[in-house]
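Example record

The entry below shows one chain as it appears in the dataset: sequence first, then structure tokens.
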Amino acid sequence: MKKILLLLILISLSVSAQTHRFIYDVIYRPDSASAELRKANYYLDINPDDTFYYERSFFVSDSIEKASGLRTFNGKVTDLLSKKRKTNEYMLYSIQSFDIYQLKDDPKIKWNIEKDTKTSSSFTLQKATARFAGRNWIAWFSRDFPFQEGPYKFHGLPGLIVEIYDDKENYHFSLNKSENFNDTQFISFYKNAKARGVEIPYSKYKSMLLSYYRIL
């Protein structure tokens, strides 16, 4: 039965699909010194040329707008992230009040692929580790998926990242569900962010945030 299920999933991941959507559960601490844990759902849309990573609230609002024509947003505004698949260049769209800032990034992650493996939902997962953004990360990826992608800015392994977490367990991403679409899916918020956003370097962006928090 598991072999049949795996075969059906792999067939559904055929190149005929224009968008492969992977939905991740994200458990995180709002502050590394806090014992509180929060949970969110993030979507990773893999399109032919780009990937898009965004919180579920954007998907819900976009669905309502497409169905009714009404533009609503009932969630907390979070950053949007896109990536060019050929160049691996990321664009972060940071929404700050009425302003949108565009920040380019080309993160280099040096992965150490380990021999450890485990099975999850009939898929064989392999372990990999890396030091990235000041944290030590443990990833479990599957070669059964023909994508070198993952949640947030994690990419570059020979398969899809199914689970990844830091060694302090401040962030834990785990794949919950996958969907495939014959038509390319595109969240309208990205069009607005691209049209309105102002591109700035990370150094200026960090200075702006520090000034903002000093005022608060």
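Notes for this example: Confidence is low (pLDDT under 50) at residues 1-8. The longest strand covers residues 171-181.
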